[in-house]
Amino acid sequence: MTDPTALRLRVHSMTRQAPAILSLVLESIDHAPLPAAAPGAHLDLHLAPGLARSYSIVGQPGRPSRYELAIARDAKSRGGSRFVHEKLRVGDELTASAPRNLFPLDESAPFSALLAGGIGITPIWSMVQRLESLQKPWLLVYAARSRAHAAYLEEIEALARHTRVGRLHLHFDDEHQNQPVDLRAVLADVGHDAHLYCCGPQPMLAAYEAATADRPPAQVHLERFGADAGTGPASGFTVVLERSGQSLQVPPDRSILDVVLEAGINAQYGCMQGSCGLCETPVLKGVPEHRDHLLADSVKAGNQAMLICCSRSCTPELVLDL
């Protein structure tokens, strides 16, 4: 069944931002204004049958005529970034969800510190542009492996040269003996009334959480790229689908979602990385091994639900409400 809320988009242009990063500009097929996308918002882009991924939207709020996305080629890609980099072409038509925002910017904050690692710059750059337009004070900490690997660097440096309210701190690992940025040091003079935002790879997020542990939790925001690898080697298990009565084997190298879709079950999904929450499924029996960063701790502790795109099972069998 066709989703009546789905957006029909066409690839207007593709630009290489860095050796492994492509930016896509998507336009409405009928040229109608697109739904508003506030800083931090993402959309679920349907690239091919059974292949959908979530990507942050780069740009300003309002009703735009186009969306811009920046997509890094992932060496461990399960198909999404590889498809974009190898198969997608200008003129191709795609469908997407309306924008959703799980990483919103608090525009009322007296000061905003924004930290980005690699492709994590995509939602952060939108936030910087919005704060600049509001003339609200900001600090951007942008880390990457090298200048060549930093998307939007030219535009960011141009804004930093002219801003009256912002500060830019750049850190390129190859210029610092391959050492990561010291987040505790760069945040040392940021007041405790500030709101902080971070998007980047797991080591950066771990350092960010440590550096902000003494700050009010409501003022510390982060967005992760994907799911945890888990606490040990993956093993196979059985998943029982209560509604259909099917019993399926989930091997170590496949997700519950993969197996469910292959069995012809119409399960909802989006990013397939444990970030969007579309595949959240009630658990009726068994103990999930949660590998997402989205569900509340209380939900995880109660074994009430799981994200079937990334989480697995601690027990030999799981019974799900599917």
Short description:
With 322 residues, the chain is α/β, with parallel strands linked by helices. It is built from seven helices and 18 strands. The protein has a six-stranded antiparallel barrel. Strands 9-8-7-10-11 form a five-stranded parallel beta sheet, with helices on both faces. Strands 13-12-18-14-16 form a five-stranded mixed beta sheet, with helices on one face.
Distance between the termini: 18 Å
Uncertain segments:
none
Count of DSSP strands: 18
Instruction: Tell me the major beta sheet.
Output: 6 strands, antiparallel, barrel
Oligomer: single chain
> How do the SSEs run, as a string of H and E?
EEEEEHEEHEHEHEHEEEHEEHEEE
Strand order of the largest sheet: 1-2-5-4-3-6
Average pLDDT works out at: 90
Supply Rg: 20 Å
Q: Give the amount of beta strand, in percent.
A: 25-35%
Can you give the helix content as a percent range?
10-25%
What class would the helix/strand composition place it in? alpha/beta
Taken from the alpha-carbon principal axes, the silhouette is globular
Determine the number of helices (DSSP H or I, runs of at least 4 residues).
7
